[in-house]
């Protein structure tokens, strides 16, 4: 696996930080998650394949243990706001004194400088500040975020993982680590580079939200309900593909011109698609260049023939659907850790401290002093 031998220390958080650590783990890195003490169940659903140590970072001894872990790590994932780690004397200046090769990845909403740096926020706030939320939503409706996908996971966790990989690659030349400042606002804006750069492209943008070709304004780039209350997605953007789309529907370009009468054409298509079930429409469009595919849901996505052949998904012991690592590498592919289950907070505390050469009596003393917790794996019964 490409990241075999890379040691990652991930401070526990939700969504973007765990996703970043998950990516590294599924491509071979060894990831230790640092949980808070007295946390008896983690709601993080992306911890599969990681180990957990529960530490009291408000105590000098807990900080000392964290520094020992940091000194043996290649990467640290910090999901906190600006200044939090510095208050504990665990900021990059402090930790890189003893580990110059450390890559200190700071994954935060607003970044570590700027007027908003110390503010709380969530995906919707970062997406809004990036400018991209203003483009999302139906005509005459308020901006609508795509759940918490874009900023948390695209502009946040994935972009941070990319930054870490860049820093790891550069370290092979300099032998020195560096700080990765992964702001979710910055990352989301960068994710939307094409949307910004294409604004002056003729015919593509320029109208109000929900009135443009790609934002549900056109009839040939939208979703349609079927007879069985499922949906089909239509993306017949190029003229040659639109022509095939019309042929499969038994229509001509005169009856339904591509770049005219968007609303009128949509009403016609809504009636047409409700005449057949999703399966019947798939039988018509599958294997063609009409750019029409079914809208699958989480319950049936694994049974689709294309996803089955490509092994796009797997499932864990609780039958939760889990996407397999992507992209696929021909020699050193990633491996899903879903089958390993999420660690309980502190589940591997004793194991990890033993690797740091702590004696059993020392570990017992740390537990009784409230410096660490030894979690217990929940029964699957």
Summarize the structure.
The chain is an alpha/beta fold. It is built from 15 helices and twelve strands. It has helices spanning 16-26, 60-71, 84-87, 92-95, 123-129, 150-174, 184-191, 193-197, 213-217, 239-249, 262-273, 278-285, 305-310, 349-355, 360-368; strands at residues 7-11, 30-36, 51-55, 75-78, 103-108, 179-183, 221-225, 231-235, 292-294, 313-315, 321-323, 372-373.
Strand-helix topology:
Blueprint: E1 7-11, H1 16-26, E2 30-36, E3 51-55, H2 60-71, E4 75-78, H3 84-87, H4 92-95, E5 103-108, H5 123-129, H6 150-174, E6 179-183, H7 184-191, H8 193-197, H9 213-217, E7 221-225, E8 231-235, H10 239-249, H11 262-273, H12 278-285, E9 292-294, H13 305-310, E10 313-315, E11 321-323, H14 349-355, H15 360-368, E12 372-373
């Amino acid at each position: 696996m490409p990241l075999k031998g890379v040691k990652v220390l991930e401070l526990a958080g939700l969504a973007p930080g765990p996703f970043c650590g998950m990516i590294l783990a599924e491509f071979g890195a060894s990831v230790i998650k640092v949980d808070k003490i007295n946390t008896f169940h983690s709601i993080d659903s992306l911890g599969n394949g990681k180990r957990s140590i529960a530490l009291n970072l408000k105590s000098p001894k807990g900080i000392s243990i964290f520094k020992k872990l940091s000194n043996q790590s290649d990467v640290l994932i910090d999901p906190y706001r600006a200044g939090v780690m510095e208050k504990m004397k665990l900021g990059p200046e402090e930790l890189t004194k003893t580990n110059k090769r450390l890559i200190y990845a700071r994954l935060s909403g607003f970044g570590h400088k700027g007027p908003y740096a110390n503010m709380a926020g969530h995906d919707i706030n970062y997406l809004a500040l990036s400018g991209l939320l203003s483009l999302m939503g139906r005509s005459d409706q308020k901006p609508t975020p795509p759940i918490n996908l874009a900023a948390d996971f695209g502009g946040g966790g994935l972009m941070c993982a990319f930054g870490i990989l860049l820093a790891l690659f550069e370290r092979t030349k300099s032998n020195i680590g560096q700080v990765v400042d992964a702001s979710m606002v910055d990352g989301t804006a960068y994710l939307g580079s094409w949307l910004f750069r294409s604004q002056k492209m003729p015919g593509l943008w320029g109208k109000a939200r929900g009135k443009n070709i790609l934002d549900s304004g056109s009839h040939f780039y939208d979703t349609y309900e079927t007879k069985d209350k499922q949906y089909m997605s239509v993306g017949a953007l190029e003229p040659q593909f639109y022509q095939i789309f019309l042929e499969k529907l038994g229509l001509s370009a005169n009856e339904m011109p591509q770049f005219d009468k968007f609303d009128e054409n949509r009403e016609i298509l809504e009636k047409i698609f409700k005449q057949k079930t999703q399966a019947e429409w798939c039988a018509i469009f599958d294997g063609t260049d009409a750019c029409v595919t079914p809208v699958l849901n989480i319950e049936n996505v694994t049974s689709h023939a294309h996803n089955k052949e490509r092994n796009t998904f797997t499932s864990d012991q609780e039958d939760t659907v889990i996407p397999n690592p992507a992209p696929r590498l021909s020699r050193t592919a990633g491996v899903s850790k879903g089958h390993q289950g999420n660690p309980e907070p502190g589940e591997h505390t004793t194991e990890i401290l033993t690797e740091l050469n702590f004696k059993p009596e020392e570990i017992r003393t740390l537990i009784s002093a409230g410096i660490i917790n030894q979690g217990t794996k929940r029964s699957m019964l």
